[in-house]
């Protein structure tokens, strides 16, 4: 969106522009997850902060530019936004639909991202780490996000569904010039948020970013028993290239990993 608001509120503006729901209720914590940063103290202390619609304030453009107005604020708890069009037309009856936002992770997402990784890995038998094995501190995750955002050849994308972090896709590139055209992918989505088109949108965003960076080969490895992931990747143009035999030991049984890649040279 091309609106002159502070950079920190642009993800929130994108969130509102992605929907036409008549009402949206967001917890303060959900708003901060969407933004990847904390709200200012004034947002917690003053009802009027949410009701401002005049300069020099600019934060309100995040929702007003998409046609929403704040109708109620429960201090330190939640905010209710109503689409003005729906509020003025009593004949409009529309159920709220899911709102999905994909954006790069920011350093403020560190705690939520580390918790999300551990949760997703604990729900599945298809990851390198099993339930409770992974130690991910907020500090370590924050360092990774900052380093990847600075180096320009790696990126973490977050999937935010209805104000909650529910998935991620990591694109890890290479510093070496001879391998700078390729990158590895790691993707994870919470079980209760799957089948919402999140994986497809994450891949779409990852491939678009990779093309901008001159990355033309994307690689991913999948456990041989993960038929859902294999079908999904084949559907999106990833081809099987080989097998890493007996790559993982799960409950004393050896499993192969399938190597897949997608090449798009322009």
UniProtKB/TrEMBL annotation:
GO terms, molecular function: acyltransferase activity, transferring groups other than amino-acyl groups
Alphabetic keyword roster: Acyltransferase, Transferase
The keyword Iron-sulfur belongs to this UniProt entry's keyword annotation: no
Domain of life: Bacteria
Record-annotated N-acetyltransferase domain positions: 100-262
UniProt xrefs under Pfam families: Acetyltransf_1, DUF7662
PANTHER family tied to this protein: AMINOALKYLPHOSPHONATE N-ACETYLTRANSFERASE-RELATED-RELATED
Protein name: GNAT family N-acetyltransferase
